[in-house]
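Pasting as-is:
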Amino acid sequence: MSAGMLAEEDLRALKTAFRRLIAAVGGLVAASACVRVSPSQLARYYDLNDLGTFPPLDVVTQLERITGDPIVAVEQARLTGHRLVPEQAVDSATLATEVAAFARAAGEVPAALCDALADGRLSQTEASEIGGVAARLSARLARISVAAKAASHSPAAPAVKGEGAPAARGPLGGRGGGRQPRASRA
């Protein structure tokens, strides 16, 4: 293997990521309806016995746009020592969605480790797969960070008393006419 070639486990990790992307779209037939490639060709792209055939970038990009999840891009970033961070959240409601998605996925790392150790040993491929799961969770955490930042700067986000932003103003921009504060209960 030359210095510029990827190791076999890296190639397998990319194929596995593409298989997850196809599953996220809804399978081979659904994915092929969205791109310029047949179901059989898509299957070759994730076939672990064919490490010389990979999907074109436009196919990966289109499928990742459809799912809204950069599954293959996250794996590519991990393999080059990077991580993906989204540019910006769509809106402040994204925060709850991202936290919920992270919470659902958080058990994947220990589950993958337990599955890998079921035979009493951890292979390089299994360790790489666990790293891929952790990279996806890291990307989810980055999306939470972006969503939290967007929510904290949103004009629609209610401010905490004393912070001064939107909630401190009445619904008419501080010109009165809004709800009156409740009297405290003693």
